[in-house]
Each structure stands twice: as C-alpha cells, then as structure tokens.
Amino acid sequence: MATVAAIGTWTSVSGLALAGVDVLVAEDPDTVRSAWRTLPGTVGLVILTVDAAEALGGATTAPNPSRPLTVVMPG
C-alpha cells in the first residue's frame, strides 16, 4: 500500500502527521533535496510546501511514472 509523505518546514507540515502522513521536516533547500532523495519506495504521494517545491525545481514536480505523485500546498 502506498504511503503519503510531506516535505517542508515544521510549522507547515507538522499537523499532517495527525492524518497519518510521514512528515519530513526540511527547513532549507539542501535539506529538502536530501529528504526528496531519501523517500522510501512505498511513497505514492508527496505533499510539498511552496518553498520545498521551489527548492526541488519544476522537473521534480512534473508528472513522471517513475516518481511519486506530487502536490504543492497553497501558499
């Protein structure tokens, strides 16, 4: 079964843990990129904050069957 992960600042993503989301706190662009690279293969959906999406660049969030589906939280 696929899981859901969220990447972003603590204040932006911590509440998602209450819904069973795997929260990956990343306070700066390098940490965001590290969190993205280490996502488990079971993750089917990644929720990104606006800043996290910008740190990853557009190619990472573009649809691709080899990556999990990604969504960006409204700013």
Summarize the structure.
It is built from four helices and four strands. The protein has helices at 10-13, 29-37, 50-56, 58-61; strands at 3-8, 22-25, 43-48, 69-72.
What would you note in describing this structure?
With 75 residues, the chain is an alpha/beta fold. It is 32% helix and 27% strand. The protein has a four-stranded parallel sheet with strand order 2-1-3-4. Strand 1 (3-8), helix 1 and strand 2 form a beta-alpha-beta unit. Helix 2 (29-37) packs across helix 3. The longest helix has 9 residues, at 29-37. The radius of gyration is 11 Å and the shape is globular. The relative contact order is 0.25.
Low-confidence stretches: none
Question: How many distinct beta strands?
Answer: 4
Q: What's the pLDDT, averaged over the residues?
A: 92
Strand order of the largest sheet: 2-1-3-4
Residues in helix, %:
25-40%
Structural class per helix/strand content? alpha/beta
Number of helices: 4
Largest sheet: 4 strands, parallel
Q: Cα distance, first to last residue? A: 29 Å
Strand content: 25-35%
The H-and-E topology, N to C, reads as EHEHEHHE
Multimerization state: single chain
Backbone CA Rg: 11 Å
